[in-house]
Design brief:
This protein is 41% helix and 12% strand. It has 268 residues and is an alpha/beta fold. The strands form 2 sheets. A 5-stranded parallel beta sheet has the order 3-2-1-4-5. A two-stranded antiparallel sheet has the order 6-7.
Amino acid sequence: MKHIVSYSGGIGSWMTAKRVIEKYGKENVLLLFTDTLIEDEDLYRFIDETVKEMGTEYIVTSDGRTPWEVFKDVRWLGNSRVAQCSYHLKQKQAAEWIKANYSPDECILYLGIDWTEDHRRKAPTKNWAPYRVEFPMCEAPYLSKQDMLQALDETGIKRPRLYDLGFSHNNCGGMCVKGGQGHFIHLLKTFPDRYKWIEGYEKEMQQFLGQDVTILKRTKNKVQENLSLETLRKEYEAEQLEQIDLFDFGGCGCYVDGEEKALISCGG
Ligand code: SF4
């Protein structure tokens, strides 16, 4: 029996791998990383070092496209409600690899969903059937993200830098389109070049689709409106902070995305 852990570079997936290895032995575990090709450079360092430390089989698979290319192909700018990148680059990619290599009775799959996200277990459990999926981080002892980061510190391996830079997830280089206003302001302050790039990409998509699409939305006077990254940046630079929801961090909802079968996560 192979125990396949969805290994994303997030701290939750690292702790999941540790628990699965502890239970079944490293020779029976396989770490599967689905690369979006826009990850932070330090995520690759983290994966390299942790894979070496754990000594398990490790597979990298990739669709070959970035989220930005997927959005053009599906003619839809990913946003906090629907982001088809997670389906094409993570879920579908992982499903194809696993189905090509293991039958349902040859493996068990493990996702890093933790006890604070218990409600997210349903969709992958249903969608992976007849494959069996387990969620070791939903089991006691219940750990917080901070606990997991401290456990990593004890190995001597450096934390993925996005956590230390204040990002809640270590994925897509801090540019996850599921992030909220606060998340993008944090990106602007931390990685102005990345913000500039994604602001330009949003404009490019508007021209490409011939529509005023935006990654963010906000509600003003009870009316929902599109909020472009250019407008958000200008408001922030003009210190019009009362218009910005700095506490809206959004979140990677890759487990529960709409059209898509929620198979696997972008990690956290
Ligand atoms: S982390 Fe965000 S941008 Fe990256 S693939 Fe997942 S949903 Fe898409």
